[in-house]
Design goal:
The protein is built from no helices and ten strands. The protein has about 120 residues and is mostly beta strands. The chain has a domain of about 80 residues: Sandwich (Jelly Rolls), CATH 2.60.120. The radius of gyration is 14 Å and the shape is globular. The N and C termini lie far apart (about 40 Å). Pfam families: Cupin_2.
Length: about 120
């Protein structure tokens, strides 16, 4: 058992991206934040499934070319192999929870020049 305080961790890109509260041994748990206009490169996972739960704001999460506009209180499940891309097209910050499982040290495959 352990406890982690969010304020003791940092977002990957300063004011945006994932902030991992746990990485492994069986799953990843992160808070993810994007400012207006920010995005996260399209990618997929070979083994891990990914889930997002929207805490604040709204975001477009494109999965295999389909735009899913999500708002506070909504949840999306993404299967291994599904290409996904997140972009904040709103005028306010977005904050969401991300989980990835089963844990793999390296499982993210970037997709170059993603069009949807």
């Amino acid at each position: 058992m352990y406890i982690i305080d969010e304020k003791d961790k940092e977002y990957r890109f300063g004011d945006s991206g994932p902030k991992y509260l746990m990485k492994g041994p069986r799953m990843n748990f992160a808070l993810v934040q994007f400012q207006p206009g920010q995005d996260f490169k399209a990618h997929y996972h070979n083994v891990m499934e990914e889930n997002f739960y929207i805490i604040e704001g709204e975001i477009d999460i494109i999965v295999d070319g389909k735009v899913n506009h999500l708002t506070k209180g909504q949840f999306i499940h993404i299967e291994p192999g599904e290409i996904h891309y997140c972009v904040n097209n709103s005028n306010a910050a977005i904050k969401m929870v991300s989980t990835l499982a089963p844990f793999q040290e390296v499982d993210k495959v970037d997709v170059e020049n993603y069009k949807y």
